[in-house]
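HUMAN: I'm a chemist; might I ask for a sequence paired with its structure tokens?

ASSISTANT:
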Amino acid sequence: MKRLISAALIALSSTCSAIAEGTSGDFDYYVLALSWSPNWCDREGHAKGSPQCDATRDFGWILHGLWPQYERGWPDYCKTNQRAPSRADTAAMADIMGTSGLAWHQWKKHGVCSGLSSGDYYALSRDAFAKITRPAVFRKLTKDYTLPASVIEDAFLAENPDLDPDMLTVTCKSNQIQEVRICLTKKLEPRTCGADVIRDCSLEDALFKAID
């Protein structure tokens, strides 16, 4: 019996590894992840000395990434023959991603699974970011608030009439609003998210920090 269980676990591990690694270009849709920069800086960025959190910057919603997704699960770190982006390429993405380091990490983990060159992946990521209206009200806050996570979702739905509630989700981390994640087709049209993506934060008192 122990041998059978051991063999089953090994087989399952191999299957999960294959799914996790994925094949470049073989996926079902994208998840566009938008991170609220002041909260990330409060949780992690200031401690790391990230230039994204410098007092001279005024980032609000930044592009965390454009992630290839399966209907259930996702690929990452796929093998690709595409050339890695240059420092100039990643630096050029810092205006919407906060840092060149994040741009590099997103290519290395997710972009390699898109089946695109790094240049095309970054261009598509920029197009996806531009397609979504980030509610201006959040940039106008003059103090920190605690609020229901649903307020964030409602604001995005109001500003993006093509989106339905099952096409986006709001995530929280450490009792703070973390991200808005929006599901898009390969042509960047809004679509219903997979069951493993729709995991809305249910907090009624999530911290939402104002831009300094």
The first helix runs from residue 2 to 21. Confidence is low (pLDDT under 50) at residues 1-19.
